[in-house]
Amino acid sequence: MLVTYAKVPSVCKLLFCVICIAAMDTPAAKACRLLRRQAVARSREFEAAGVSRTMLAKLVERGTLRRVARGFYSLPDASPDVGHDLARAVRQVPGGVVCLLSALRFHRLTTQNPFEVWVAIPPNAWRPVGGGVPIRFVHVARPHLADGVEHHRIEGTKVAITTPAKTVADCFKFRNRIGTDVAIEALKEFVQRHTGKIDSLLRHAKVDRVERVIRPYLESVV
Question: How many structural domains is the chain composed of?
Answer without folding.
Answer: 2
